[in-house]
Structures are given as structure tokens and as C-alpha cells.
Write the C-alpha cells for this entry.
Amino acid sequence: MIPEFISLTIPRPTEAGLSDGFRAVVTLLDAGNLQASLKRFDRERRLFDSWAALVYLRFSQDTASETNKAERDYADRLGPKATALEVAIKKRLLALPEREKLIAIIGSHVVQLWESDITTFDERIETALEEESRLCSEYTMLLASARITVAGQTVNLSGLAPWLENADRTVRHEAEQVRWAFFAEHGETLDALYARLVSLRTGMARTLGFERYTPLGYRRMRRVDYEPEQVARFRDEVLTHVTPLVAKLLEKRRQEMGWDHLRYWDESFIDPKGNPKPAGDYDLLIGRAQTMFDRMPGEIGLFFAEMVKNGYLDLKNRDGKAGGGFCTAFPSVKMPFIFANFNGTHGDISVFTHEMGHAYQNWRSRELPVIDELWPTMEAAEIDSMGLEFLTWPHMELMVEDGAADRFRRMHLISSLSFLPYGVCVDHFQHEIYARPEMSPEERHATWRKLEQLYMPWRDYGDIAYPAKGGRWQAQGHIYKSPFYYIDYTLALCCAMQLWLRSRKDEPAAMKAYETLCAQGGSMPFTTLVAQADLVSPFIPGALADVVREASVVLGATD
């Protein structure tokens, strides 16, 4: 029986209680009962992860609440202690002579993940981990505090979106001006926050025996089947194949619109008729989403009905709420939760279907035996989210304003292609930063601007000084809060767009492959999951060629 979210309670752990719970795992292990020990270990981790997910979700729902902030601070302090206990047990289990028996119970991939995990923690970095969490929360609160006035209305950063896409070019310009005025006002604070985070992470890496943070960052992301060199080759593929196509599409748009120059505030205005809007208000969209999912194969309609019935959604924008969208989950009750900020733009649909893809995968994987399998590593998880964005295309007449479904599909395809150069730019920037952690704020901004000009040579900020000097990256929360978690979106998009290609020829086959991928959860590493789905790995040269070719034809951008 799924509890209603509003009544969901998960016991608040204490350090002593955690120690007792994990000591029980060791007692069972010492008694020679490996199966029972592993089961208890999994239970303890599910309970703690569920509690932590609830704490950080409630903080995101209301960053101004002193109660939520205090509980988040408590979770920040307790998290490293839970990790220490967990790593100690993983080390004990991995040191067992009966390795084959361990693999038989939890699987070779989970063993591989644990072997990586134990290299990412030591009690000597507990204080640094707590400080890292505190600084990330400080970044979240700072951006959530923004109050921006545009066209006589005061909104937060998420609420600014309709003006950023307004059909009136002067309104878009004004919206970008006030947006970046906020970042300019807080630029020194944002620079100092990031400098502290980079220093902390570099220090943790060196304490753990790494020369720099990058290899530790990859291990914290649980990447066990590829290295930075393969990622760099993929960035080159995007630069070679996608950047020229996006440049061509933007030039075509400039000519169609009669603009003398393409400015930054023009890039998000994709449709000459105005970017398609959602079909209606929140209640209408939720009802139509239910119809859409009911029409699709599999159990996604049943699952969405459970989410709505039991309140596992928070999609409306409001003051004090953290920006962005995400999916979290409570493994002890086997339910995920979707968090977003609807603002009346087409982004509401894209973010919703994206996060719904994450939620559906987690739900489909809920009965897998080990907590480590409930989520794939993030680049694989993003195939599930981005894949659903494309697989809902046939039903877009339900979700967008009348007569705009084809325009929405075209806009989504252009947005996806345009995202790839930006996504690899974010990744390249982080590799440069952690290779030279001693960079000054000015050098970091210059590095961003240089890479931006490489991957997005069309980008022109006009008279908006702050991003023109290289400050655009400070609006990308992943750079602060989840280092090296951004290339995941681009790797996944390479695969999700292959599902799009397949769905154009055989929609049922594409949906079947998607369902299977979701159900496999994190039982295999990224490249194996991709191969199992009969998709081309992003690390194979030419992986983007078919997608770019088909997109060029669909968008009328062939030579």
C-alpha cells in the first residue's frame, strides 16, 4: 500500500541509531550469514536514503523555512557519518574470500560499483563533505531568493521564462538584462562559493590519493566503464557534426525573422509564430497527461495515476521554492517524486515528460533486489528521461495549444540539437577547472567564454555585459552542486534520439525497447545497457551521424 505523500513519515536517524543498524549487519556477517547480512545492509541504506531524500525535497519545496533549513543542516552533518559506516561494510564484504558467492547474490555490476565507492571516501574528508553540502545549499538558497521585476511584474528566476521567450524581441532583451543583473549583483559571492567548492574538492581528492579531482569526480558519479578520454572524443563528435547544423539552423532563423544579428535573447525564440504554449492550466495538463500515458503501451498510465492519487508531484512555481526540476525517490516505500516549476511555457511539457521518464524507470525497477540497482548511473538514467520526451511526441496534440503539435515537435528537435554543444561546453569547462584549480575568478570566466566561442560560435550577448565577460556558467547549478554531472545529458541524448529515429519507423518497437531499458534499472553499466537496447554507444565514432542526417532532413537544413 503506497502512503499518501502528505502523510509520509520516515524515522529520523541518529548517529547512534545508524551505528547500531550497521553493527547488526556486521554481526550477521560474523555469524557467517552472508544472505541475511546483505539483506539487512540493504534495508538500512533504503531507510537512510529515503529519509535524506525527504529532507532535501522539503528544503527544495520551501528554501525559506527555518525548519527545513535546520533539518537540511542536520542531514548535511549526518550524511558523511552514514557514508563512513556504509563504506566500512562494503570494504568488509569485498574482502570476503567467497567473492563468487557475493557476486551470485548482488551481481557483478554492484560489486564493481562498490569497488569504486570505497575509493571515494575516508573519515579524513568527513568535514569537507559536510562543508561541500552546506555550500551547495547556499548556492540553491541564493538563486531561490531572486526577485526580478520585468514588464512591471516581480518573479523568481523560474517565473522569468515566459518573458525570455516572448514574441516581442525587446521584451526578451529586457528579460535577459534583468536576469543577468541579478547574477552581476551577486557575482563576487558566486565566484567565492565556487572557488571554495573547487578548493574543497581538490583537497578531498589529494587526501584520498588522487592528483586532482577529476578521477575522484568520475568515481563519485560511479562511472565504471569509460574514462575522460572517451568523453573528450564525444565532445569532438558534437563539435564536428552538431555545431555546424545548429549554426545553420540559427542563420536560417535569423534570415526568416529579418534580424540584422542573432543575439543571445533570440536563441530561445525558435518558432516564428511564437513558441507553442501548453494546452491550458495545471489541472488540464494533469488530466491530459493521464490520457496520454493511458494511450501508451506498458504500465505508465497506471503508474501516473498512482502518483497523482497519492500526491507524489510538486509542479507549480512559487516564492521560496528552489528552481529547476528533478526526480527523487523513497526506496523504503518504492515510490519516486517529481519536482518542477511550471511557468506557462513549452518547458513545462519538456521538463514534465523528462522527469516522468526518471520516475517511471525508478518505479519499474522498484523490485530489483539491491538498492544500487534502483537507479542506473546518471548517463543511463538520462536516456530514460530524454527517451520519454521523444516517445510522447505522437500524443502532443493533447499537451500543447490547438494546432501547435507539429510546431512543438519541431521546436523540441531543434532545442535538443542546440543543447548538445552547450552540454559538452559545460563538461569541457569543468575538466579545465579541475585541471587548474588555482584559477582566479577572471581566468574561470575567460575559460568559459573561450569554450563558449568554440562550441557555440554564434553566441552574441550584445550589450549584456555579465555573460559577455564569461559569467553564463554561474546559472548552471550542476557546475556548483554536481561536478561532472552534465555530459550525462548529452551522452543520453545521443541514445534518446536514436529511440526517436526508431520510433519514426516502428513506434511499438521503440516503446518496447524503452520499457525494457527502464525495467533493467541500474543492473548493468551504461555501455552495457546501451548495447542491450540495441543502441549505438556515444563513444563509437559516428554515433551522431544518423541522427544529424535525419534531423537535417526533417528540419529542412540539408545542403
Observations:
- The mean pLDDT is 96.
- Residues 5-131 form a domain with the Butyryl-CoA Dehydrogenase, subunit A; domain 3 fold (CATH 1.20.140).
- The two ends are 58 Å apart (CA to CA).
- The longest strand covers residues 335-342.
